[in-house]
Amino acid sequence: MKTVYLDNAATTQLRSEVVAEMTKVLSEDYGNPSSTHSVGRHAKSIIETSRKSIAANLGCLAQEIIFTSGATEANNWIIRSAVVDFKVERIISTKIEHHAVLEAVEHIGHEFSIDVQFLNIGNDGAVDLAQLKELLSDGVPTLVSLMHVNNEVGTVLDLVKVGNICRLHNAYFHSDTVQSIGKTEFNFKELPVDFAVASAHKFHGPKGVGFAYIRKGLVVNPMVFGGEQEKGIRPGTESVHNIAGMAKALELSYTNLESDRSYIAGLKNFAIESLTKTFPNIKVNGSRENGFYNILNVCLPMDEQKTLMILFHLDMKGIAVSRGSACQSGSAKPSHVLAEMLTDDDIRKPSLRISLSHYNTEEDIDILVDALKAI
Ligand code: PLP
Protein backbone atom coordinates (compact mmCIF):
# COMPACT_ATOMS: atom_id res chain seq x y z
CA MET A 1 0.00 0.00 0.00
CA LYS A 2 1.32 3.44 -0.99
CA THR A 3 1.69 5.85 1.91
CA VAL A 4 0.10 9.19 1.10
CA TYR A 5 1.69 11.69 3.45
CA LEU A 6 -0.36 14.89 3.62
CA ASP A 7 0.66 16.05 7.09
CA ASN A 8 3.64 18.28 6.37
CA ALA A 9 2.65 20.90 8.93
CA ALA A 10 3.18 18.22 11.60
CA THR A 11 6.55 17.16 10.28
CA THR A 12 8.34 16.62 6.97
CA GLN A 13 10.35 13.94 5.25
CA LEU A 14 14.12 14.55 5.36
CA ARG A 15 15.79 15.45 2.08
CA SER A 16 18.33 12.83 1.03
CA GLU A 17 21.12 15.44 1.03
CA VAL A 18 20.30 16.19 4.67
CA VAL A 19 20.53 12.50 5.59
CA ALA A 20 23.90 12.30 3.79
CA GLU A 21 25.23 15.37 5.60
CA MET A 22 24.09 14.13 9.00
CA THR A 23 25.47 10.63 8.40
CA LYS A 24 28.85 12.10 7.53
CA VAL A 25 28.91 14.28 10.66
CA LEU A 26 27.75 11.39 12.87
CA SER A 27 30.39 9.01 11.60
CA GLU A 28 33.34 11.32 10.99
CA ASP A 29 32.92 14.57 12.94
CA TYR A 30 32.25 13.19 16.39
CA GLY A 31 34.31 15.65 18.43
CA ASN A 32 32.93 17.59 21.34
CA PRO A 33 32.82 21.22 20.15
CA SER A 34 34.03 22.39 23.57
CA SER A 35 37.26 20.32 23.38
CA THR A 36 40.30 22.38 22.55
CA HIS A 37 42.07 19.71 20.44
CA SER A 38 41.68 19.55 16.68
CA VAL A 39 38.87 16.93 16.75
CA GLY A 40 36.83 19.23 18.98
CA ARG A 41 37.76 22.35 17.04
CA HIS A 42 36.59 20.67 13.85
CA ALA A 43 33.15 19.96 15.38
CA LYS A 44 33.00 23.55 16.61
CA SER A 45 33.75 24.82 13.11
CA ILE A 46 30.80 22.78 11.75
CA ILE A 47 28.53 24.52 14.24
CA GLU A 48 29.79 27.99 13.39
CA THR A 49 29.62 27.34 9.63
CA SER A 50 26.03 26.14 10.09
CA ARG A 51 25.15 29.25 12.10
CA LYS A 52 26.61 31.52 9.40
CA SER A 53 24.74 29.68 6.66
CA ILE A 54 21.42 29.93 8.53
CA ALA A 55 21.99 33.63 9.24
CA ALA A 56 22.85 34.32 5.58
CA ASN A 57 19.63 32.64 4.47
CA LEU A 58 17.55 34.73 6.87
CA GLY A 59 19.25 38.11 6.52
CA CYS A 60 20.50 38.34 10.09
CA LEU A 61 23.78 38.15 12.01
CA ALA A 62 25.21 34.77 13.00
CA GLN A 63 25.29 35.92 16.62
CA GLU A 64 21.50 36.40 16.52
CA ILE A 65 20.93 32.64 16.00
CA ILE A 66 20.99 30.48 19.16
CA PHE A 67 20.56 26.73 18.71
CA THR A 68 17.95 24.94 20.82
CA SER A 69 16.23 21.54 20.92
CA GLY A 70 13.40 22.96 18.84
CA ALA A 71 10.70 25.58 18.82
CA THR A 72 8.88 24.57 22.00
CA GLU A 73 12.03 25.27 24.01
CA ALA A 74 12.79 28.47 22.09
CA ASN A 75 9.24 29.85 22.54
CA ASN A 76 9.27 29.08 26.28
CA TRP A 77 12.70 30.64 26.73
CA ILE A 78 11.79 33.86 24.93
CA ILE A 79 8.47 34.32 26.73
CA ARG A 80 10.05 33.65 30.13
CA SER A 81 12.95 35.93 29.33
CA ALA A 82 10.64 38.78 28.33
CA VAL A 83 9.13 38.64 31.81
CA VAL A 84 12.29 37.91 33.82
CA ASP A 85 14.93 39.85 31.87
CA PHE A 86 12.94 42.60 30.13
CA LYS A 87 10.43 43.06 32.94
CA VAL A 88 7.33 43.14 30.78
CA GLU A 89 4.18 43.51 32.86
CA ARG A 90 1.80 42.17 30.25
CA ILE A 91 1.71 39.59 27.46
CA ILE A 92 -0.62 40.03 24.50
CA SER A 93 -1.25 36.93 22.38
CA THR A 94 -4.14 34.94 20.90
CA LYS A 95 -5.95 31.72 21.66
CA ILE A 96 -5.03 30.32 18.23
CA GLU A 97 -1.29 30.08 18.97
CA HIS A 98 0.38 26.68 18.99
CA HIS A 99 0.35 25.14 22.48
CA ALA A 100 4.11 25.81 22.68
CA VAL A 101 3.20 29.50 22.98
CA LEU A 102 -0.32 29.36 24.40
CA GLU A 103 0.58 27.17 27.37
CA ALA A 104 3.85 29.00 27.97
CA VAL A 105 2.01 32.33 28.04
CA GLU A 106 -0.62 30.97 30.44
CA HIS A 107 1.86 29.27 32.79
CA ILE A 108 4.44 32.06 32.83
CA GLY A 109 1.73 34.72 33.10
CA HIS A 110 0.31 32.88 36.12
CA GLU A 111 3.73 32.17 37.69
CA PHE A 112 4.73 35.86 37.64
CA SER A 113 1.21 37.30 38.08
CA ILE A 114 1.48 39.06 34.73
CA ASP A 115 -1.56 40.40 32.92
CA VAL A 116 -2.32 38.20 29.89
CA GLN A 117 -4.61 39.50 27.14
CA PHE A 118 -5.86 37.49 24.17
CA LEU A 119 -6.78 39.40 21.03
CA ASN A 120 -10.03 38.71 19.20
CA ILE A 121 -9.88 36.45 16.16
CA GLY A 122 -12.05 36.80 13.06
CA ASN A 123 -13.73 33.74 11.57
CA ASP A 124 -10.97 33.73 8.93
CA GLY A 125 -8.28 33.54 11.62
CA ALA A 126 -7.28 37.20 11.29
CA VAL A 127 -6.05 38.92 14.46
CA ASP A 128 -7.81 42.11 15.61
CA LEU A 129 -5.04 44.67 15.15
CA ALA A 130 -7.23 47.63 16.13
CA GLN A 131 -7.59 45.97 19.53
CA LEU A 132 -3.82 45.49 19.68
CA LYS A 133 -3.24 49.22 19.05
CA GLU A 134 -5.87 50.15 21.60
CA LEU A 135 -4.32 47.90 24.28
CA LEU A 136 -0.77 49.07 23.61
CA SER A 137 -1.73 52.74 23.79
CA ASP A 138 -1.66 52.60 27.62
CA GLY A 139 2.15 52.28 27.60
CA VAL A 140 2.36 49.20 29.89
CA PRO A 141 5.66 47.32 29.17
CA THR A 142 4.46 44.47 26.98
CA LEU A 143 5.49 41.38 25.04
CA VAL A 144 3.34 40.78 21.95
CA SER A 145 3.47 37.13 20.87
CA LEU A 146 1.69 36.39 17.59
CA MET A 147 2.45 33.53 15.22
CA HIS A 148 3.35 34.19 11.59
CA VAL A 149 1.57 31.28 9.86
CA ASN A 150 -1.06 29.40 11.81
CA ASN A 151 -0.16 25.69 11.84
CA GLU A 152 -3.76 24.50 11.66
CA VAL A 153 -5.47 26.82 9.18
CA GLY A 154 -2.50 28.59 7.55
CA THR A 155 -3.69 32.17 8.14
CA VAL A 156 -0.77 34.55 7.60
CA LEU A 157 0.00 37.48 9.92
CA ASP A 158 1.53 40.64 8.47
CA LEU A 159 4.80 40.76 10.44
CA VAL A 160 5.74 44.23 9.19
CA LYS A 161 2.40 45.74 10.15
CA VAL A 162 2.36 44.16 13.62
CA GLY A 163 6.05 44.85 14.20
CA ASN A 164 5.57 48.52 13.37
CA ILE A 165 2.65 48.79 15.78
CA CYS A 166 4.84 47.22 18.48
CA ARG A 167 7.76 49.56 17.71
CA LEU A 168 5.49 52.59 17.89
CA HIS A 169 4.44 51.58 21.39
CA ASN A 170 7.83 50.26 22.58
CA ALA A 171 6.51 46.71 22.93
CA TYR A 172 8.67 43.63 22.32
CA PHE A 173 7.48 41.50 19.40
CA HIS A 174 7.92 37.72 19.38
CA SER A 175 6.62 35.64 16.49
CA ASP A 176 6.39 31.86 16.29
CA THR A 177 7.71 31.50 12.75
CA VAL A 178 7.89 27.69 12.78
CA GLN A 179 5.57 27.19 9.79
CA SER A 180 7.15 29.86 7.61
CA ILE A 181 10.92 29.68 8.11
CA GLY A 182 12.30 27.79 5.11
CA LYS A 183 9.01 28.33 3.26
CA THR A 184 9.04 32.06 2.64
CA GLU A 185 11.73 34.76 2.44
CA PHE A 186 12.95 36.45 5.61
CA ASN A 187 15.20 39.44 6.00
CA PHE A 188 15.44 39.97 9.74
CA LYS A 189 17.63 43.02 9.27
CA GLU A 190 14.59 44.81 7.83
CA LEU A 191 11.81 43.08 9.78
CA PRO A 192 10.54 44.79 12.94
CA VAL A 193 10.62 41.48 14.85
CA ASP A 194 12.61 41.06 18.07
CA PHE A 195 12.32 37.31 18.60
CA ALA A 196 11.48 34.42 16.26
CA VAL A 197 11.84 30.64 16.36
CA ALA A 198 12.37 27.73 13.99
CA SER A 199 12.22 23.97 14.05
CA ALA A 200 14.25 21.97 11.51
CA HIS A 201 11.79 19.10 11.14
CA LYS A 202 9.26 21.46 9.56
CA PHE A 203 11.56 22.17 6.61
CA HIS A 204 12.83 18.67 5.75
CA GLY A 205 15.47 18.64 8.46
CA PRO A 206 15.92 16.53 11.60
CA LYS A 207 13.72 16.48 14.71
CA GLY A 208 14.97 17.74 18.07
CA VAL A 209 16.77 20.82 16.80
CA GLY A 210 15.79 24.40 16.07
CA PHE A 211 16.84 27.89 16.98
CA ALA A 212 15.82 31.15 18.53
CA TYR A 213 16.41 34.36 16.60
CA ILE A 214 17.16 37.05 19.19
CA ARG A 215 17.74 40.54 17.83
CA LYS A 216 21.21 41.93 18.57
CA GLY A 217 21.23 44.13 21.65
CA LEU A 218 18.55 42.12 23.50
CA VAL A 219 20.42 40.40 26.29
CA VAL A 220 18.65 37.28 27.51
CA ASN A 221 19.67 35.05 30.39
CA PRO A 222 19.83 31.24 30.30
CA MET A 223 16.80 29.13 31.15
CA VAL A 224 19.05 26.26 32.28
CA PHE A 225 22.57 26.40 33.71
CA GLY A 226 25.64 24.30 33.21
CA GLY A 227 28.13 25.39 30.58
CA GLU A 228 29.52 27.93 28.20
CA GLN A 229 27.94 26.63 24.99
CA GLU A 230 25.92 29.12 22.90
CA LYS A 231 27.57 32.05 24.72
CA GLY A 232 26.49 30.48 28.01
CA ILE A 233 22.83 31.32 27.41
CA ARG A 234 21.87 27.84 26.18
CA PRO A 235 24.33 25.43 27.76
CA GLY A 236 24.67 21.73 26.96
CA THR A 237 26.82 19.86 24.43
CA GLU A 238 25.67 20.88 20.98
CA SER A 239 23.89 18.34 18.77
CA VAL A 240 26.42 18.76 15.96
CA HIS A 241 24.82 16.37 13.44
CA ASN A 242 21.38 17.91 14.00
CA ILE A 243 22.70 21.44 13.63
CA ALA A 244 24.57 20.55 10.43
CA GLY A 245 21.45 18.77 9.10
CA MET A 246 19.30 21.79 9.92
CA ALA A 247 21.65 24.20 8.12
CA LYS A 248 21.71 21.91 5.07
CA ALA A 249 17.91 21.62 5.08
CA LEU A 250 17.45 25.40 5.31
CA GLU A 251 19.99 26.03 2.56
CA LEU A 252 18.15 23.58 0.26
CA SER A 253 14.77 25.06 1.19
CA TYR A 254 15.93 28.49 0.04
CA THR A 255 17.74 27.21 -3.05
CA ASN A 256 14.51 25.51 -4.18
CA LEU A 257 12.04 28.00 -2.72
CA GLU A 258 10.62 29.51 -5.89
CA SER A 259 10.01 26.26 -7.74
CA ASP A 260 8.80 24.36 -4.65
CA ARG A 261 6.43 27.18 -3.69
CA SER A 262 4.80 27.47 -7.09
CA TYR A 263 4.51 23.67 -7.35
CA ILE A 264 2.94 23.34 -3.88
CA ALA A 265 0.60 26.31 -4.42
CA GLY A 266 -0.59 24.66 -7.65
CA LEU A 267 -1.19 21.42 -5.78
CA LYS A 268 -3.21 23.23 -3.12
CA ASN A 269 -5.42 24.76 -5.83
CA PHE A 270 -5.82 21.33 -7.40
CA ALA A 271 -6.89 19.94 -4.01
CA ILE A 272 -9.44 22.74 -3.47
CA GLU A 273 -10.92 22.23 -6.96
CA SER A 274 -11.02 18.48 -6.65
CA LEU A 275 -12.58 18.51 -3.17
CA THR A 276 -15.13 21.15 -4.21
CA LYS A 277 -16.13 19.10 -7.24
CA THR A 278 -16.78 16.06 -5.05
CA PHE A 279 -18.25 17.91 -2.06
CA PRO A 280 -19.91 21.11 -3.35
CA ASN A 281 -20.73 22.24 0.21
CA ILE A 282 -17.18 21.94 1.52
CA LYS A 283 -15.85 25.02 3.38
CA VAL A 284 -12.28 26.22 3.63
CA ASN A 285 -11.46 26.95 7.29
CA GLY A 286 -9.42 30.11 7.69
CA SER A 287 -8.81 32.51 4.87
CA ARG A 288 -8.90 31.52 1.21
CA GLU A 289 -7.07 34.64 0.07
CA ASN A 290 -4.70 34.96 3.02
CA GLY A 291 -3.96 31.28 3.60
CA PHE A 292 -0.39 29.97 3.39
CA TYR A 293 0.38 27.98 0.25
CA ASN A 294 1.00 24.58 1.84
CA ILE A 295 -1.83 24.38 4.39
CA LEU A 296 -5.45 23.63 3.55
CA ASN A 297 -7.99 23.10 6.30
CA VAL A 298 -11.47 22.08 5.20
CA CYS A 299 -14.78 21.48 6.93
CA LEU A 300 -16.43 18.48 5.29
CA PRO A 301 -20.18 18.54 4.77
CA MET A 302 -20.59 15.22 6.58
CA ASP A 303 -22.54 13.95 9.50
CA GLU A 304 -20.89 14.71 12.86
CA GLN A 305 -21.01 10.97 13.69
CA LYS A 306 -18.32 10.52 11.07
CA THR A 307 -15.91 12.95 12.75
CA LEU A 308 -14.15 10.41 14.91
CA MET A 309 -13.86 7.56 12.43
CA ILE A 310 -12.73 9.61 9.45
CA LEU A 311 -9.00 9.76 10.34
CA PHE A 312 -9.09 6.08 11.24
CA HIS A 313 -10.65 5.26 7.88
CA LEU A 314 -8.05 7.33 6.00
CA ASP A 315 -5.24 5.83 8.07
CA MET A 316 -6.41 2.31 7.12
CA LYS A 317 -5.89 3.36 3.52
CA GLY A 318 -2.38 4.65 4.18
CA ILE A 319 -3.37 8.33 4.08
CA ALA A 320 -1.84 10.59 6.72
CA VAL A 321 -3.73 13.82 7.31
CA SER A 322 -4.48 15.66 10.50
CA ARG A 323 -7.53 16.87 12.29
CA GLY A 324 -6.37 20.19 13.67
CA SER A 325 -2.87 19.92 15.13
CA ALA A 326 -1.04 16.61 15.48
CA CYS A 327 -1.13 16.55 19.25
CA GLN A 328 -4.93 16.41 19.16
CA SER A 329 -5.46 13.63 16.67
CA GLY A 330 -7.24 10.74 18.28
CA SER A 331 -8.82 13.03 20.80
CA ALA A 332 -12.52 13.84 20.67
CA LYS A 333 -11.87 17.43 21.75
CA PRO A 334 -12.28 19.96 18.95
CA SER A 335 -9.17 21.83 17.91
CA HIS A 336 -8.59 24.91 20.10
CA VAL A 337 -7.91 26.90 16.92
CA LEU A 338 -11.09 25.89 15.08
CA ALA A 339 -13.07 26.41 18.30
CA GLU A 340 -12.12 30.12 18.12
CA MET A 341 -13.14 30.47 14.48
CA LEU A 342 -16.00 28.17 13.52
CA THR A 343 -19.73 28.31 14.20
CA ASP A 344 -21.13 25.82 16.74
CA ASP A 345 -22.63 23.91 13.84
CA ASP A 346 -19.42 23.66 11.81
CA ILE A 347 -17.23 22.77 14.76
CA ARG A 348 -19.17 19.51 15.14
CA LYS A 349 -18.54 18.54 11.52
CA PRO A 350 -15.34 16.77 10.51
CA SER A 351 -12.51 19.14 9.57
CA LEU A 352 -9.28 17.98 7.96
CA ARG A 353 -5.90 19.65 7.71
CA ILE A 354 -4.15 18.74 4.48
CA SER A 355 -0.59 20.07 4.48
CA LEU A 356 1.62 19.69 1.45
CA SER A 357 5.27 19.49 0.46
CA HIS A 358 7.17 19.22 -2.81
CA TYR A 359 7.11 15.43 -2.36
CA ASN A 360 3.33 15.33 -2.90
CA THR A 361 1.65 14.76 -6.26
CA GLU A 362 -1.81 15.18 -7.81
CA GLU A 363 -2.16 11.41 -7.46
CA ASP A 364 -1.92 11.82 -3.65
CA ILE A 365 -4.86 14.24 -3.77
CA ASP A 366 -6.84 11.87 -6.02
CA ILE A 367 -6.29 9.03 -3.54
CA LEU A 368 -7.46 11.25 -0.65
CA VAL A 369 -10.57 12.44 -2.50
CA ASP A 370 -11.48 8.85 -3.53
CA ALA A 371 -11.07 7.69 0.06
CA LEU A 372 -13.27 10.51 1.35
CA LYS A 373 -15.91 9.68 -1.27
CA ALA A 374 -16.02 6.11 0.04
CA ILE A 375 -16.80 7.18 3.62
N1 PLP B 1 5.01 26.19 16.89
C1 PLP B 1 4.34 25.77 15.81
C2 PLP B 1 3.54 26.75 15.02
C3 PLP B 1 4.38 24.43 15.40
O1 PLP B 1 3.70 24.02 14.34
C4 PLP B 1 5.16 23.52 16.19
C5 PLP B 1 5.21 22.09 15.83
O2 PLP B 1 4.22 21.41 15.82
C6 PLP B 1 5.86 24.01 17.30
C7 PLP B 1 5.76 25.35 17.61
C8 PLP B 1 6.71 23.12 18.15
O3 PLP B 1 7.94 22.88 17.53
P1 PLP B 1 8.94 21.73 18.04
O4 PLP B 1 8.42 20.46 17.47
O5 PLP B 1 10.27 22.10 17.46
O6 PLP B 1 8.97 21.77 19.51
UniProtKB/TrEMBL annotation:
<dbReference type="InterPro" id="IPR015422">
    <property type="entry name" value="PyrdxlP-dep_Trfase_small"/>
</dbReference>
<dbReference type="InterPro" id="IPR020578">
    <property type="entry name" value="Aminotrans_V_PyrdxlP_BS"/>
</dbReference>
<keyword id="KW-0411">Iron-sulfur</keyword>
<dbReference type="GO" id="GO:0046872">
    <property type="term" value="F:metal ion binding"/>
</dbReference>
<dbReference type="InterPro" id="IPR015421">
    <property type="entry name" value="PyrdxlP-dep_Trfase_major"/>
</dbReference>
<feature type="domain" description="Aminotransferase class V">
    <location>
        <begin position="4"/>
        <end position="368"/>
    </location>
</feature>
<dbReference type="GO" id="GO:0051536">
    <property type="term" value="F:iron-sulfur cluster binding"/>
</dbReference>
<dbReference type="Pfam" id="PF00266">
    <property type="entry name" value="Aminotran_5"/>
</dbReference>
<keyword id="KW-0479">Metal-binding</keyword>
<keyword id="KW-0408">Iron</keyword>
<dbReference type="InterPro" id="IPR015424">
    <property type="entry name" value="PyrdxlP-dep_Trfase"/>
</dbReference>
<keyword id="KW-0663">Pyridoxal phosphate</keyword>
<dbReference type="InterPro" id="IPR016454">
    <property type="entry name" value="Cysteine_dSase"/>
</dbReference>
<protein>
    <recommendedName>
        <fullName>cysteine desulfurase</fullName>
        <ecNumber>2.8.1.7</ecNumber>
    </recommendedName>
</protein>
<dbReference type="GO" id="GO:0031071">
    <property type="term" value="F:cysteine desulfurase activity"/>
</dbReference>
<dbReference type="InterPro" id="IPR000192">
    <property type="entry name" value="Aminotrans_V_dom"/>
</dbReference>
<keyword id="KW-0808">Transferase</keyword>
<comment type="similarity">
    <text>Belongs to the class-V pyridoxal-phosphate-dependent aminotransferase family. NifS/IscS subfamily.</text>
</comment>
